[in-house]
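Collaborator request, handled under Task 6.
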Amino acid sequence: MSPPLDLLLRDCRLPDGRLADIGCRGGRIETVGSLATRAAARTIACEGRAVTPGLVDAHIHLDKALLDDRAPSREGSLTEALRVTGEAKRGFTREDIASRARRVLDMAIRQGTTAMRSHVEIDPIVGLTGFEALAALRREYAPAIDLQLCAFAQEGILKAPGTDALLREALRAGADLVGGVPYVDPDPRRHVDIVFDLAAEFGVDVDFHADFFDEPQHLHARYIAEQTVRRGWQHRVALGHMSEMAALPPDEQDALARVLAEAGVAVIVLPATDLYLMGRKDVRSPRRGLAPIKRLLAAGVPVAAATNNVRNAFTPLGTAGLPLMGYLVAIAGHLGAEPELAQVLDMLTTHPARILRRAEPLLGPGAPADLVVWEGARGAEVISTLGPCRVVVKNARVTIEHRRTVVEPWREAARSAPGGA
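Structure tokens returned to the collaborator:
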């Protein structure tokens, strides 16, 4: 007789359209099929609702979230966002960062996110304050979300002396990877080299903010891809934003996509921020500012859609919900057909899991039991209706349950009115 399951999800709608039960034990999916006679410590009736792997947010900034009350966007430019956020950072404390980050983590988890990579700024202004705050939250929130921390040189490395030593200190203290932003430094290639040197020293992955302007005035992605291959760091490098790529002629977009694919470099589009900040100077047909998602996917580049910022000068709106990021990508990237919506869902699950080098998020035996039960009956509805989720499961344990009650007094009033049905 089979031992009892930890969790049994009955009548789940799988991504291929089949109805099946999902049995979980020991933090993993044990079996998928008809489990009518199987005992379980906890059983949830899904009643034909869609079940997907847990969502993975590959790029967020928890340490500078929710600054709209103290450092708001007024001009809406990238230059302004960098300036006002840098000024606000001088007043950050560990308690302040933890308070704001905790609110964002709660938002994300309640909307189906079970893994996340947060950049955390490391520089002479803030030191390791942000890292220390988020490292504590990484432990606190471990039952609900896997949190990776990227030691990130937002202020540059060359123009902010001492940053390289602080990055090294953060990596020694447990940062999961190292990140850079070459376009803020006077010698972008040297910036890239230093980040790769640190990655090699500590054996960690790399995540760059890259080519985040309207026109292709940098294209540091090419040098990053070259260094990725030269240093043997394939499938360990991700590039966030990449909006400049969309301004290239189509043949050059295809060529760059092939370079990235061959180097094993992933791209993370950040639709809320990219749409908000790009195209500001366009007076006719403002550009979207999104990287060319279809061309990248066609070339075999892993592409994730992620949150980036939540309610600060870079992105003054947001709820840390990945379904909204998928919705924005589908609309702005012209990815609304049914097969394309499946691709967008992959950008919230499969692709970011690969970028974070996690186990493949499949709904099959042996896969991690990080799951979301949605209100809708099709996976596409995660994108088309912005969720909402009903149950979130982490390591075979229910972490979130939404119990919704909708009361519609107007209907009863209409029925009670003279002539009502």
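The cover message to the collaborator said: "The chain has a mean pLDDT of 96. Residues 339 and 380 are 9 Å apart (CA to CA). Please let us know whether this matches your experimental observations."
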